[in-house]
Specification:
- 39% of the residues are buried.
- The chain has two domains: 109 residues, Multidrug-efflux Transporter Regulator, Chain: A, Domain 2, CATH 1.10.1660; 153 residues, Serine Threonine Protein Phosphatase 5, Tetratricopeptide repeat.
- It is of the alpha+beta class and 279 residues long.
- The strands form two sheets. Strands 6-5-4-7 form a four-stranded antiparallel sheet.
- Helix 5 packs antiparallel against helix 6, helix 10 packs antiparallel against helix 11 and helix 11 runs antiparallel to helix 12.
- 59% of the residues lie in helices and 9% in strands.
- The longest helix has 16 residues.
C-alpha cells in the first residue's frame, strides 16, 4: 500500500511520532492502515500535518488547532495536484489560496504561512535515500511507490521527481504512468528526443493512449515534424474523441497545409465540446 509511514512524517515535518499517529486516530487526516496495521499517509495528509505543525509551533490551543485542521481538510482540493495551494495568515484570518480562489477555513489569529511546494521539497531527501544502492529498505519498494513519490515531488522538487520516475522504470520498464510523466518533465526541460521516447513507450498501455499520443503530437510539432504530429493527434482522437486540445492542434496543422475542410471539421468538434475557439 502506498503512503508515508508515521516515522517518515515525523522526520519530514518535525512533529512527534505519537502526535502524528494521534491525528490519524482522531480522523483529522484521512490516513489509512497498511497491510500490517501501520498508518500510511498521503501527500495531502502531509499538507494537513504541516499545517498542524505550524499551528502547534504558534502555540494555538489544541481544541482550536483541531477545529482549524478539520475545516482545512474539508476545503482542500481533492483528487488533483495541490501545487497551487498556499496557506497564510491575513490579519486575523487564515486564508487558503488556490489559483484565483481564496477562502478562510477558520477565524482567528493563526500564525501559519507555507507553500505546499515546500512539503514536496521536504519529501525529496526521503526519496533520495530510498533510491541509494545498499539502502536496506530499497528492495521492498516497488515501481508504484517511486511513481507515487514522483507525483508528490513534482510541485516543489522536479529534479527529484524525475529521478523517482527513472527509478520506477528501472524496477518496471513498462510502467506507463512513469513513462508519461517522465516524458513530460523531459519535454519541459527541452529534451525533445527523450520526451518522444517515453511518450512512445507509454502508448503501450491502453488507458494512456489518448494522453500519450497527444503529448507525442506536441513534442513532434516542437521538432518540426508536422505530418507525424498530425498522425499522433489522430491516434489520440481515436482513443478519446472528446479530447478538445487534440482537435484544436490538428485543426491548426491541417489549416497550415491547406486542408481547410478537414480543419473546419476539427474546429466544429471543439465548438461542440463547448470550448469555443482559442484564437
Amino acid at each position: 500500500m502506498w503512503g508515508y509511514r508515521a516515522r517518515d512524517v515525523s522526520r519530514l515535518l518535525g512533529l512527534p511520532e505519537p502526535e502524528v499517529r494521534r491525528y490519524a486516530r482522531e480522523g483529522l487526516v484521512p490516513a489509512r492502515r497498511g497491510a500490517r496495521g501501520e498508518w500510511r499517509f498521503s501527500f495531502q495528509d502531509l499538507v494537513l500535518l504541516r499545517a498542524a505543525a505550524e499551528l502547534a509551533r504558534a502555540r494555538i490551543p489544541a481544541a482550536r488547532l483541531r477545529r482549524a485542521l478539520r475545516r482545512l481538510r474539508e476545503q482542500l482540493p481533492a483528487d488533483r495536484s495541490l501545487a497551487g495551494v498556499h496557506v497564510s495568515a491575513a490579519g486575523d484570518q487564515v486564508v487558503v489560496r488556490d489559483g484565483g480562489a481564496a477562502w478562510q477555513p477558520e477565524s482567528g489569529q493563526l500564525l501559519i504561512d507555507f507553500d505546499v511546494r515546500d512539503v514536496a521539497r521536504r519529501v525529496a531527501p526521503l526519496v533520495r535515500s530510498a533510491g541509494r544502492d545498499g539502502d536496506r529498505e530499497a528492495p521492498a519498494r516497488g515501481a508504484g511507490e517511486f511513481y507515487e513519490w514522483g507525483c508528490d515531488l513534482e510541485p516543489g522538487a522536479p529534479e527529484e521527481a524525475l529521478a523517482a520516475y527513472q527509478r520506477a522504470l528501472e524496477l518496471d520498464p513498462g510502467h506507463a504512468g512513469a513513462h508519461l510523466n517522465l516524458g513530460r518533465l523531459l519535454h519541459e526541460h527541452a529534451d525533445l528526443a527523450g520526451a518522444e521516447r517515453h511518450y512512445r513507450q507509454a502508448l503501450a498501455a491502453p488507458e494512456q493512449v489518448a494522453l500519450a499520443a497527444f503529448n507525442l503530437g506536441v513534442v513532434l510539432e516542437d521538432q518540426g515534424r508536422a505530418d507525424e504530429a498530425l498522425g499522433a493527434y489522430q491516434q489520440a482522437l481515436a482513443a478519446d474523441p472528446g479530447l478538445a486540445d487534440a482537435h484544436y492542434n490538428a485543426a491548426l496543422l491541417l489549416e497550415a497545409t491547406g486542408r481547410r475542410a478537414e480543419a473546419l471539421g476539427h474546429l466544429g468538434a471543439v465548438r461542440k465540446l463547448g470550448l469555443g475557439s482559442r484564437g
